[in-house]
Amino acid sequence: MRSKFAAAILLLLSLPLHASEVEYTGAAPESIKIIGLRVPWLLDYEKPGPYNKVADALFSESPLAVHLELQPLKRAMRHFFEGDADCFFMGDTDEAYFIGTPLADTPIIVSEPFNTVNMRVFSFGNTEPFSSVDQITDKRVAVDLGVGGIIRIMQVIPNLTQAVDALNADQIHAMLSKGRAEAALMMDYDYALHAARHPEQALLQFDPALTVQKVQDAMMCKQTPRTETLIAHVNARIAGMSKSGRLVSILRPAVDFAHSHHKPSATAPTYSDY
Question: How confident is the model over 54-65, as pLDDT tens digits?
Answer without folding.
Answer: 999 999 889 999
